[in-house]
Specification:
This protein is of the alpha+beta class. About 50% of the residues lie in helices and about 15% in strands. It has 6 helices and 4 strands. Strands 2-1-3-4 form a 4-stranded mixed beta sheet. The longest helix has 21 residues.
Length: about 120
């Protein structure tokens, strides 16, 4: 079972995750909204602000993946998305994707009030 830890208070994040939920095999995924239920983060030893900053995924072997690596795990287990997972896994593409995702995540985090509040916890 793949466990996805996502920001359910972010409208963009929720929209994307809700789309994945509609196409994913429910037997393959557990979806955890950490913004509304941060207690599950104890399972992976991640603080709330880090979990809100970037997507986190526990794979079938309980290995933690963050950011682009987390998306690669999700996409690799979704029909029609496997090709994107394969493409983004190429080193140069992955480096570029990591850079772009990190910039996006930092901007998103800075804009959302609930993310800023997580810094106080």
């Amino acid at each position: 079972m793949i466990t996805v830890f996502y920001d359910g208070k972010c409208s963009l994040c929720s929209k994307e995750i809700n789309y994945y939920k509609t196409i994913a095999n429910p037997k393959n995924f557990t979806w955890i909204d950490v913004a509304n239920n941060p207690n599950h983060l104890k399972l992976i030893g991640v603080n709330l602000s880090d979990a809100l900053m970037q997507l986190h995924v526990l794979d079938n072997k309980k290995k933690l993946h963050v950011g682009v690596d987390a998306f690669i795990i999700i996409w690799g287990n979704l029909r029609f998305w496997r090709i994107l997972s394969f493409i983004v896994s190429f080193p140069i593409i992955k480096q570029i994707a990591n850079l772009l995702y990190k910039k996006f995540a930092e901007r998103r985090f800075a804009k959302l009030p609930h993310c800023q509040l997580s810094l106080d916890r």
